[in-house]
Each structure stands twice: as structure tokens, then as C-alpha cells.
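Changelog note: in this version the structure field was regenerated for every chain. One regenerated record is shown below for reference.
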Amino acid sequence: MTETTIRPGEGRLSHAPTDHPTVKVAKVGVLIANLGTPDHYSYWPMRRYLSEFLSDKRVIDYPSWKWQPLLQTVILGKRPFTSGANYKLIWNEELNESPLMTITKAQTEKLRASLTATFGDTVMVDFCMRYGNPSTASKVRAMVEAGCEKILFFPLYPQYAGATSGTANDAFFKALMTEVRQPAARTVTDYFEHPLYIEALAGSVRRVWDAMEVKPDVLITSYHGMPQRYLRNGDPYHCQCQKTTRLLREALGWGPEMIDTTFQSVFGPEEWLKPYTVKHVAELAKAGKKRIAVVAPAFSADCIETLEEIQGEIREAFEHAGGESFTYIPCLNDDDAHIRALAAVAADNLGGWVG
């Protein structure tokens, strides 16, 4: 209970001495997290971002003594230029930010409106990035300062992987270590089976399909890849991707011949999850499948991997192999059906914390 309000969300306890610090009205934070984005596509912002990303042991688990000299010299001497050129192709010049940042802001605004309508203003909704800005630590600090005594951390990855959800959680837990009074904490795990997520995904495919006079021969569900050994070591990502495709196919009422599961964004010399999207689409074209559509169910927002890789490298591979019609189905982004799914997942995980 508070007495005279000093600032919105703060007050002074009725029994406290006059010099006692103001006490914030308790709130519950919902902090959504995405992968991240460079601050700009020029060399140094790209280098800082790539260095943070590629130094993450969850992403590249080679020994530091072997990996860091190669990363900091050869790779980061060249890759910021090539990656920066790719980012420049998709950059939101009007807002001077990447599409991922623009979309995540829109998702946050809509999710905030939805949860506020359900739970009132005791719930605070914000976003952070695992790499780049705004950092997870800065947003945890802001939530604690705003009076959040409980925080639900929500990585926007439908399928769990150590290199996505796991490392996002790592950053969240690390941020909590610096707080004098740690808030109670929960994390949202995978939600690839949630009926509203599957419904939103199927709806996005159906809208595109229904609008086409000549339908594609096959739909490719292209997921971000990972090394094969991660699967052998117990990471559930591959199995969850396969199940996502099956649930999507069932929701659409299609036969198994209509959907293929593939993996993109291969990096480094070792074997990754197969089939590789870029090779598979070329093989389809050569086999007579001249019309295809591609959707990326593992990405909650369009980003460099979808806007540049799928619509650039992967499209070109298909067309160069004789493909005639390539359709990209956008990520769920801030589509209302997607926001309903995210709000439902958040509400499920807020049980007992809010009325």
C-alpha cells in the first residue's frame, strides 16, 4: 500500500520515515527478446555486432584459443563488408534501422495493447535483443527500476534451440545477477505446438495460396540450420521443426507431398541439418517443380535471413536451375493472428502472477 504519490508508479509507505526512499508500485514485466541487429550497415557497427554474435559459445562452440584468432582477424576483417552490403539492401532508411528492429517495435506495441486490455497497467511490456541494442541487461534494469518485481522473459523463437532460446535465456539470467533485489523470473519455452501459432502460420500460407490463380507445386518450410552434432547432443530443434511442418500441413489439409522441410544459413565446414534449402530448391527445379513457395516458420519477424537470403540467394538458386515462379510468404511479423498467439502464450505463462 502506498500513501502520497511522488511520481507515477512510486509512493512513500505510510509507516516509513520521511527520509525513506520512495517505493515503486509492484508491476509484472513481460520482456520479449529477438536475435538482434547491427546499429548500422557500415563497417564498425557491423563488426561489433558480428563479433558479439559469433563469439557466443552457444552459436560457435569451438575452443576460444582456436576460434577467436580466426574470428578477429580473417572473418571480421572481411565479413562486415559483405554482411553490411546485404543489410544495406534491406535497410529501413526512413527510420535508419533494420527491418527486424522495425517489426519488433510494432510487435511490442501490439502485444502491450493486448496484455494491457487483459490485465491492466500492472503489466509492463518491452523488448530487447540478444545481440546489439537494446541489450537484455539494459531492459532488465529498466524494468526493475520501473517496479517490476516479477519478469516473464519471452524469446520469440517458436522452436527451442540452444543457439536461440538458450542463449537468450543465458543473457537474461546474467542480467539478473547484477540486480541488488532480483525479481522473480520465468522464461517462456518453445510454443511451436500452440494452436494459435499454428493457426496464424496456416492463415498466412492460406492467404497467399488463395490469391494465386496458378498454385505452387510445393511449399518449402525453410528453418534456420544448425550443425548436425547439436541434434546428436540432444538439442530438440530439428524434431520440433519437423513437427511444426506436420502440424502446418494438417492445419492446411494437405498431403505430405505438398510440403518439404529444409534448413538454411549454413556456416563453416562441418555438416549441418539437411536438406539445405539452397540446394533443395535447385533440385526441385531440375526435377520439374517449376513453381514453389517458401515460408520460414522459425522466424517470428522478417530479417536478413528471410529478406535477403531467401529472396536473394535461395530464389536465385531456384531460378538458375530452371524454376519459373518463386513466392516468398512473409513471416508472421505483427499480424493480428500472430499477436493473439503471442498474447495467449504470455498469458499462459503469467498464471498466478496476474489476475
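Spot check on this record: The first strand starts at residue 10 and ends at 11. The two ends are 18 Å apart (CA to CA).
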